[in-house]
């Protein structure tokens, strides 16, 4: 007797059944089966006729009866599939899934697996019409004799799997019914659907569908995922022993798991090989060679989610939240999450790996092992498009992934665009003096010159100071004669004197910035300039930054590095503001485009001449101002601004070339308060009495930009009009 065919007698003669009793039980099963099946009308015809006759009967008049109750989307909607997040060059950033599955066509599956699964699960697959009367009679006889044999065809198994997949997709996991739990009505429904399925699809389509949906392991659904999981090969390359092992798994994925039960797995594999020999799929020599082949696994466990991304973990997280926050991908957050985790999406992003690799290496090098958990981050925007090209920070999402500390917080983006707390992320940091170019833009927007002299010796702006404003009262004051207030302070004592607006910016003098404010025709132009370049609070893009309060002029409100980089990109693009984008295209499992972001730019958001003049001044920061302390030079036209908060624990350089705008941050991303000072600290073996933007964030910016600047436009900036650089008569004038 061939292996795999259950014996109809027991090993103990005393327990053998009476032949008449066996026949009676078998007849009883058969009569009962016919009685139940008669309810279904056309189903009985399907049971009693060969495959060709079934199809003919269905077409003649039974089709409606068999398919009327078939949900249209059960077989048209694919089962849960893996979503892939890709960089701009097509390299993979991460995969996300509830069920690890990658659908492939039948011609990308090895003939070995097709033959093995048919031989062991349904050797009459190509003869029956969806249900197999011969198999049913044989199963009844075996069961009546005390054995056990299933009668479900591959088509019926496919129906069951797809119905269950649809329940899972709807979040109805509790309603999933396994084969051993089915009642009579459920079996009849399964048979009806199987006949209807055979009418609609070819045998090859059904076989491909089955092999793409069936579970081989809790980590592998469908033959491609199973091949990769157990053997690290594609399904098309499965050898005969490998295919036989996988075919044996579907009957009991846990029972025959070769990683847990190698002996049971080999016995099952050899049973499949016996069936393949018995039904003519292999010859004796192939059978014997395969049986004598030891199980050789190369397990490749899937690592899903942004936490396992080999590059750009936090950018990946940002991209996923962009989709989660977009109603275009589903009416509810649950709908959108389901699409991400089960929809088999291909998410193509703007990330440039040529920049991402150096950015990650740089932030890791900036702080070293860093037991004090100081944060370092870099984020780059392409001026004129808004594309996010890189996003890196020195932490990791999981332990053991590197020298950095573990954090789920994204340092670079708004709170609403990341994972971490009730808002989403860190929610930005205090940008300090990197906010000063906003006041400069307001000054230039009124037609004033960068070389105009302002009185930077003035330190008191009291409660009743006569600000010129058309939109709202100015809040706050600096005046030591008022209780709980102090005079305006500079970082060093020798800058309280008249100076040009230009010098006040490149030397980062607080009193010069306030003197510029006092010289504006309308204080509200500062808010207008901030709005034009897209500045907003780090909690989210709908939270407007408030520049009606004097303390905020010097960067005391939290702003995300991505927002700062994009604001400076507006200067680099001659005043064209572009909303940041990270997703170029989203395709569904069938390759149909269902979404994506396109560049949304507003030319002239800031007057082009104003943007050119701002750039002209910010170039001086790196050649003669606060950025002169940065030893690395790019060797191409560049512009930047340093920034440091009051407590020296949040420090910045935001700078750009014509083709790249990058925000560099070093400090405590979680708190800009006095509870943790950036003073008297040692970073990477170097002691700092006080950290300034040019000391750590500056070299980080310059070293990174040195390595990547040649990949994008690095030509000359456009020259500003002369009237914004010097007074018409070439004379400097003093502003009160």
Automatic annotation (TrEMBL):
Q: Which residues form the Penicillin-binding protein transpeptidase domain?
A: 377-658
Classification via InterPro entries = Beta-lactam/transpept-like, Glyco_trans_51, Glycosyltr_51/Transpeptidase, Lysozyme-like_dom_sf, PBP_transglycosylase, PCN-bd_Tpept
Q: Where is the Glycosyl transferase family domain?
A: 90-276
Gene Ontology terms for molecular function: glycosyltransferase activity
Which domain of life, per UniProt? Bacteria
| Broad EC category | transferase
What's the name of the protein?
Answer: Transglycosylase domain-containing protein
Catalytically driven reaction(s) = Preferential cleavage: (Ac)2-L-Lys-D-Ala-|-D-Ala. Also transpeptidation of peptidyl-alanyl moieties that are N-acyl substituents of D-alanine; [GlcNAc-(1->4)-Mur2Ac(oyl-L-Ala-gamma-D-Glu-L-Lys-D-Ala-D-Ala)](n)-di-trans,octa-cis-undecaprenyl diphosphate + beta-D-GlcNAc-(1->4)-Mur2Ac(oyl-L-Ala-gamma-D-Glu-L-Lys-D-Ala-D-Ala)-di-trans,octa-cis-undecaprenyl diphosphate = [GlcNAc-(1->4)-Mur2Ac(oyl-L-Ala-gamma-D-Glu-L-Lys-D-Ala-D-Ala)](n+1)-di-trans,octa-cis-undecaprenyl diphosphate + di-trans,octa-cis-undecaprenyl diphosphate + H(+)
The Enzyme Commission number assigned here is: 2.4.-.-
The organism named in the record is Arthrobacter sedimenti
Q: Does the keyword GTP-binding apply?
A: no
Annotated keywords: Carboxypeptidase, Glycosyltransferase, Hydrolase, Membrane, Multifunctional enzyme, Protease, Transferase, Transmembrane, Transmembrane helix
Q: Which residues cross the membrane?
A: 20-49
């Amino acid at each position: 007797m061939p292996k795999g065919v259950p014996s109809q007698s027991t090993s103990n003669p005393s327990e053998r059944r009476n032949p008449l009793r066996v026949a009676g039980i078998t007849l009883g099963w058969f009569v009962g089966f016919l009685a139940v099946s008669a309810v279904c009308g056309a189903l009985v015809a399907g049971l009693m006729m060969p495959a060709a006759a079934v199809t003919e009967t269905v077409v003649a008049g039974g089709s409606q009866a068999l398919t009327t109750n078939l949900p249209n989307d059960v077989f048209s909607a694919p089962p849960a599939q893996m979503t892939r997040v890709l960089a701009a060059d097509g390299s993979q950033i991460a995969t996300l899934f509830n069920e690890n599955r990658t659908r492939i066509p039948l011609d990308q599956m090895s003939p070995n697996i097709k033959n093995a699964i048919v031989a062991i699960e349904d050797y009459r697959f190509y003869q029956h019409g969806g249900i197999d009367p011969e198999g049913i009679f044989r199963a009844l006889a075996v069961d009546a004799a005390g054995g056990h044999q299933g009668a479900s065809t591959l088509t019926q198994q496919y129906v069951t799997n797809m119905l269950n997949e649809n329940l899972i997709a709807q979040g109805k996991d509790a309603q999933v019914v396994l084969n051993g739990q089915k009642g009579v009505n459920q079996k009849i429904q399964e048979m009806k659907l199987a006949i209807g399925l055979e009418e609609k699809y070819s045998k090859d389509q059904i076989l491909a569908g089955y092999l793409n949906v069936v579970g081989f392991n809790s980590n592998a659904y469908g033959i491609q995922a199973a091949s990769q999981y157990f053997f690290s090969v594609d399904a098309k390359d499965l050898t005969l022993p490998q295919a036989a092992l996988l075919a044996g798994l579907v009957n009991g994925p846990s029972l025959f798991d070769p990683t847990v039960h190698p002996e049971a797995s080999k016995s099952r594999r050899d049973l499949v090989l016996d069936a393949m020999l018995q039904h003519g799929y292999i010859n004796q020599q192939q059978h014997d060679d395969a049986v004598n082949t030891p199980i050789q696994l190369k397990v490749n466990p899937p690592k899903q989610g942004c936490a396992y991304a080999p590059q750009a973990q936090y950018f990946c997280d940002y991209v996923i939240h962009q989709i989660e926050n977009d109603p275009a991908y589903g009416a509810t957050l649950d709908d959108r999450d389901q699409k991400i985790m089960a929809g088999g999406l291909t998410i193509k992003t703007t990330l440039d790996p040529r920049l991402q690799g150096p950015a990650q290496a740089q932030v890791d090098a900036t702080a070293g092992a860093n037991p004090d958990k100081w944060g370092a981050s870099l984020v780059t925007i392409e001026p004129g498009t808004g594309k996010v090209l890189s996003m890196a920070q020195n932490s990791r999402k999981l332990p053991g992934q590197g020298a950095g500390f573990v954090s789920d917080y994204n340092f670079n983006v708004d709170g609403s665009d990341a994972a971490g707390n009730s808002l989403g992320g860190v929610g930005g940091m205090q940008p300090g003096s990197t906010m000063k170019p906003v006041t400069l833009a307001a000054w230039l927007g009124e037609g004033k010159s960068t070389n105009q002299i302002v009185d930077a010796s003035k330190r008191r702006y009291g409660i009743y100071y006569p600000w010129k404003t058309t939109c709202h009262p100015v809040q706050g004051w600096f005046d030591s004669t008022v209780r709980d207030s102090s005079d305006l302070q500079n970082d060093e004592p020798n800058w309280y004197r008249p100076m040009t607006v230009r010098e006040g910016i490149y030397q980062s003098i607080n009193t010069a910035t306030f003197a510029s404010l006092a010289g504006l025709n309308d204080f509200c132009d500062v808010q207008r300039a901030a709005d034009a370049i897209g500045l907003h609070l780090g909690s989210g893009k709908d939270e407007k930054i408030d520049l009606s309060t004097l303390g905020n002029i010097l960067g005391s409100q939290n702003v995300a590095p991505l927002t700062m980089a994009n604001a400076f990109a507006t200067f680099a693009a001659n005043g064209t503001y572009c909303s940041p984008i990270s997703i170029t295209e989203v395709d569904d499992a069938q390759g149909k485009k269902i979404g994506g972001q396109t560049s949304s730019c507003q030319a002239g958001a800031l007057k082009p001449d104003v943007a050119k003049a701002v750039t002209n001044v910010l170039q001086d920061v790196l050649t003669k101002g606060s950025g002169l302390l940065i030893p690395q030079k790019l060797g191409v036209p560049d512009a930047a601004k340093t920034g440091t908060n009051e407590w020296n624990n949040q420090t910045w350089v935001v700078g750009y070339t014509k083709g790249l705008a990058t925000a560099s941050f070093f400090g405590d991303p979680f708190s800009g308060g006095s509870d943790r000072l950036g003073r008297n600290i040692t970073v990477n073996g170097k002691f700092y009495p006080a950290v300034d933007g040019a000391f750590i964030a500056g070299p980080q910016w310059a070293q990174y930009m040195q390595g990547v600047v040649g990949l994008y436009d690095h030509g000359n900036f456009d020259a500003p009009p002369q009237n914004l650089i010097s007074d018409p008569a070439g004379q400097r004038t003093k502003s009160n």
